[in-house]
Amino acid sequence: DADVTQTPRNRITKTGKRIMLECSQTKGHDRMYWYRQDPGLGLRLIYYSFDVKDINKGEISDGYSVSRQAQAKFSLSLESAIPNQTALYFCATSTTVGNDEQFFGPGTRLTVL
Amino acid sequence: QQQVKQSPQSLIVQKGGISIINCAYENTAFDYFPWYQQFPGKGPALLIAIRPDVSEKKEGRFTISFNKSAKQFSLHIMDSQPGDSATYFCAATYTGFQKLVFGTGTRLLVSP
Fold first, then answer.
1. b/e for B50-62, b at 16 or more Cβ within 10 A?
2. Do A102 and B100 touch (CB under 8 A)?
């Protein structure tokens, strides 16, 4: 079983719709992250959470919100999707100790029409 | 100042050749420099990482070279193989920052 799972893997939606992307992990890590990947722009941090009560904005949080429902679950919501939110979205986790390695999920490809 | 600049954006190398990807940073507080490898349809995964107390780290065919004075680090893939074809991201962080700053990625294609 994968350590970091994301659902859905692919999603097509329309402008103005609310959509939620979900991430679950079985690694027992406290830290969780949401990134978006766009060609030529690399990975940009949307939100991150260091425990259930700690939520922080990343560099591109506008238009997004998150919920940390449990240590193992971190959801990303687009309140009113727009076409320029079409991207590949990744969830990642890391431990609070050690070498800062982040473990990524398989990604969700989101298309906003 | 938190940016990490990566080049080239794409790279084609013949099988058996050396692939070189470069990154530069501004923040002198950065003290951990990992490289991530991403295959199509997959999430990035840690490939190799270096801390600035050494100038080079080698793991198999993959080597990181680090130049602290120039604030640059690079990934060298020796004897490149078609299976190395992937997107590579450099990144940087520092103790206490708790986030990774990623470069823009390099798409490597190793031709048979």
1. beeeeeebeeeeb
2. yes
